[in-house]
Design goal:
The N and C termini lie far apart (195 Å). The model is unreliable at 1-39, 397-419, 758-768 and 827-834 (pLDDT under 50). The chain has an eight-stranded mixed beta sheet with strand order 7-6-8-9-10-11-12-13. The protein is built from 29 helices and 26 strands. 45% of the residues lie in helices and 16% in strands. Helix 17 (448-460) packs across helix 26, helix 19 (536-557) runs parallel beside helix 28 and helix 21 runs antiparallel to helix 28 (777-808). It has 834 residues and is an alpha/beta fold. The protein folds into six domains: 1-27; 31-157 and 325-349, Response regulator (Rossmann fold); 161-265 and 272-293 and 351-407, Rossmann fold; 421-509 and 717-742, Periplasmic binding protein-like II (D-Maltodextrin-Binding Protein, domain 2); 512-521 and 629-715, D-Maltodextrin-Binding Protein, domain 2 (3-Layer(aba) Sandwich); 529-624 and 776-828, no CATH class.
């Protein structure tokens, strides 16, 4: 029983002592703030970190490990006062004030963002102290240099962003890349813009485009679509890790990763690689990045790594990755600076950057050292010398395994290398010399296309040389793919199949394919052309008002003019004669009534306007509308089984056969405009098919014999071709727009193409071009109204006269009988003598 009690007591003491022992060990490992040896002087060290972030968590663990080491090695006891600022500058300011006023700290560490770091520095600067001002060791790498000059207590504890940007500029310079687009997150410091701009300027490159993004942006697709349309293909990304992953994955869905594109991420993204799993890293395959460098193979780091992983897992069990990264090393090194005198602290200078290329679930690395160049290893990590090079080509097999864009970059950026000229191919045998004219004896090249190309390249300030090529236009474009030419300047049509071998500028001419045929006279088959000036309603109303006016004149004048009397048929003829004769003459001397004269005057005024309008319209039709095409549509050609022509060596042959469905034996090619004209005039072919610019030239030469049919088939216009991935394509398009908007393009077109433009063709008259009732209804109302008023007045006068006669002869019947008797007696007196 006694033995059992003894064992129980031993176990109880062990159970009680174990937690105390573990607590003592933890206290020794972390440098407890509550235990301060009385034999040593205490020095307070403050830390302000965002303990919700990976950098803050790593720095916190590293600080505690470093404090423990320093307290063992030195006689001065360091007490660490830790404050949390969840990435909020206001919280950082409150924490800094508390550390200074309450704990009288000698130094403050922290501030992973410039916003927090600058806030802490402002608090230190503004605080009234009765003791020495604490030094501030900043952990942010994005610091505007001009800002820190006002704070003598400000110490840069990590390498600045400028070193990273110098590495980016060195990569681009080694690849002969001169222009780049920056994509950055607006919540981060905008000093990245100035750092990158300065670094690029030192290597002769430039930042041509800036795309700001918000961390909550949901329009990554729209933002990238704009850059894709602008032919932007080289990007530097400076965002948070989460946004960078989203951005890269969106770009991958839009086929903006791989051939022709280059994505370089800054250390703001790459420094988090140790804290994420391999699946996330594999989603970034193809990304290149610059990563903060620290030695990982020396014994000091390996010892630190073992201790860090143990403590980090204990403090943050929710974190899946326990590896220490650059944030832990920066925090550990910053605290070890305390071994020196506070007054002699100097900024940490690290001039080596790790360059990585994500490949699968890992990445390949090389290194860049400022002032030395690129290397496969770092000198202090190996025994022996390290070879450096300023060209990444010499170590490309390590960094760029099977990267398609890298394999062709020497050609892709050829024109940016100083002293090198682009090789520009030109058609040696263009059918239309107005476009391209090559003098094979002197080697001179001239023409509309050449002058437009010269203007574009002059605005882009790019050197080049012209090389004539005797072959088809398809073969000329393939020469770019075969790397014999860097560009092609000629009357080359933009086609989808040609995009496989080259990139094209926007069209600088009208696009379309036109059919040209001989002309024929329009008058030969239009015997009723004289009726065309008026519409049918106009003719009917004119005839009706004419007869109406003639009737009124006849009615008014018949009692005064015996010539207007007679039989019914005779009087109908007289009415029509009066109507149409008054159309051309007044005949006022033969009229007895002022009412008829009034009606005729107004009608003659209206008739004068109508006849003059008719004459002018008919004359216009007889002159301007005298030509028409002999064949009006492609359907007519196919029904006739007619033969057509095209320019030898052009794409039109395939278009006629595959799209317009002409048989091959009905398609002839010609090598000159004169050959076109002869074949059309002889009837060998019924039509020719030319692109719009070529049609202008042909019709300028043969403006009296041939005409367009009005049908236009949609094809691409003329464009300049460059090698695939030509990164200055957007600049070329802008230069072409400048040439067009300045009026230079129009002047060159007039000079070479349309100096003899044909103007004697118009479309046939249609209903819309004929004179109708709408144009003359006021005149018709005027003459009809005048005649009607004259008729009313005549009727009123006749009624009044009739009433007067009734008063004189109260009995109308007796008066009629008297008249009859009088006529009978008159007749008897004539008959009796006979």
């Amino acid at each position: 029983m006694h033995k059992v009690c003894t064992n129980y007591l031993i176990l109880s003491l062990a159970a009680f002592s174990l937690p105390c022992f573990l607590l003592l060990q933890a206290t020794m490992a972390t440098g407890s703030l509550t235990t301060t040896p009385t034999a040593r002087n205490e020095t307070g060290i403050g830390a302000i970190l965002d303990l919700t972030s990976r950098p803050g968590k790593e720095a916190k663990v590293a600080f505690e490990l470093a404090i423990h080491d320093l307290n063992i090695k030195t006689d001065q006891w360091l007490a660490l006062y830790l404050k949390n600022s969840p990435n909020k500058p206001v919280h950082a300011a409150v924490a800094a004030k508390e550390l200074i006023d309450e704990h009288k700290v000698k130094a403050i560490l922290g501030g992973h963002s410039w916003e927090e770091a600058s806030t802490i520095a402002e608090v230190i600067s503004d605080t009234k102290l009765d003791h020495d001002m604490p030094v501030f060791l900043s952990l942010t790498d994005t610091i505007p240099s001009q800002e820190t000059n006002q704070w003598p207590f400000f110490i840069q504890a990590v390498t600045t962003q400028s070193t990273q940007m110098n590495a980016v500029a060195a990569i681009l310079h080694s690849m002969d890349i001169r222009q780049v687009t920056l994509i950055y997150e607006t919540s981060s410091s905008a000093s990245i813009i100035s750092h990158l701009t300065q670094s690029l300027r030192q290597t002769g490159s430039e930042l041509t485009n800036i795309l700001p993004l918000t961390c909550t942006s949901c329009s990554l697709y729209e933002e990238l679509e704009v850059t894709k349309r602008q032919q932007r293909k080289v990007f530097v990304i400076h965002t948070s890790f989460e946004l960078g992953v989203r951005l890269f994955q969106t770009a991958k869905k839009m086929d903006m990763i791989g051939d022709g594109y280059l994505w370089i991420a800054t250390n703001a993204i790459m420094d988090y690689f140790h804290s994420v799993n391999s699946t996330v890293i594999s989603s970034l395959k193809g990304m290149v990045g610059v990563k903060s460098y620290f030695p990982e193979n020396n014994p000091e780091f390996l010892h630190f790594r073992k201790r860090f992983r143990h403590k980090f897992h204990s403090d943050y069990p929710e974190e899946k990755q326990e590896e220490p990264g650059i944030f832990a090393m920066q925090g550990f090194n910053a605290l070890h600076m305390m071994e020196e005198n506070f007054d002699e602290l100097k900024p940490i200078r690290v001039n080596t950057v790790e360059i990585v290329n994500v490949n699968g679930k890992g990445y390949h690395s090389v290194y860049w050292t400022e002032g030395l160049g690129f290397s496969e290893t770092v000198q202090n990590e190996i025994n022996g010398e390290t070879s450096y090079t300023h060209s990444i080509d010499n170590i490309g097999h390590v960094l760029w395994p099977a990267q398609p864009w890298y394999a062709t970059r020497s050609r892709r950026y050829l024109l940016e290398s100083p002293g090198k000229k682009m090789k520009v191919g030109v058609p040696g045998n263009s059918l239309f010399k107005q476009f391209v004219l090559v003098d094979h004896e002197t080697g001179n090249v001239d023409g509309f296309v050449i002058e437009v190309f010269d203007e574009m390249m002059r605005k882009m300030n790019l050197p080049y040389e012209r090389i004539p090529f005797n072959g088809s236009y398809d073969d000329l474009i393939r020469e770019i793919h075969l790397k014999n030419f860097d560009a092609v300047a000629g009357d080359v049509t933009i086609l989808s199949e040609r995009h496989e071998f080259a990139d094209f500028t926007q069209p600088y001419t009208e696009s379309g394919l036109e059919m040209i045929v001989p002309v024929k006279s329009r008058l030969s088959n239009q015997p009723w052309l004289f009726l065309k000036p008026f519409t049918a309603k106009m003719w009917l109303i004119t005839a009706a008002i004419t007869i109406y006016n003639g009737f009124i004149i006849w009615l008014i004048e018949r009692n005064h003019n015996k010539d207007l009397q007679g039989s019914i048929i005779n009087q109908i003829g007289i009415i029509l004669w009066l109507a149409f004769s008054t159309f051309f003459t007044l005949r006022g001397d033969k009229m007895h009534s002022n009412l008829s004269r009034m009606a005729v005057v107004v009608w003659l005024f209206v008739a004068l306007i109508i006849t003059q309008s008719y004459t002018a319209s008919l004359a216009s039709m007889l002159t301007a509308q005298r030509l028409e095409p002999t064949i009006e549509s492609v359907e007519m050609l196919r029904n006739m089984n007619a033969t057509v022509g095209y320019c030898n060596g052009s794409f039109i042959n395939r278009y006629l056969n595959e799209v317009l469905e002409f048989d091959n034996y009905n398609i002839n090619s010609y090598n000159s405009t004169h050959g076109y004209a002869e074949a059309l005039n002889s009837g060998e072919i019924k039509a020719i098919f030319l692109e719009v610019p070529a049609a202008k030239v042909f019709l300028a030469q043969y403006c009296k014999s041939f005409i367009r049919t009005g049908e236009t088939f949609k094809v691409g216009g003329f464009g300049f071709a460059f090698y695939k991935g030509f990164r200055q394509l957007s600049e070329a398009n802008k230069a072409l727009m400048d040439v067009s908007e300045s009026g230079t393009l129009k002047a060159l077109e007039v000079k070479h193409l349309i100096s003899e433009e044909c103007v004697d063709e118009e479309s046939s008259p249609d209903e819309a071009g004929r004179l109708n009732l709408r144009s003359f209804w006021v005149l018709f109302v005027l003459t009809g109204g005048t005649s009607t008023v004259a008729l009313v007045i005549y009727i009123v006068i006749s009624i009044n006269e009739f009433k007067k006669s009734k008063l004189e002869d109260t009995n109308l019947i007796s008066a009629f009988i008297k008249d009859c008797r009088r006529l009978i007696r008159r007749s008897s007196s004539i008959v009796l003598p006979v």
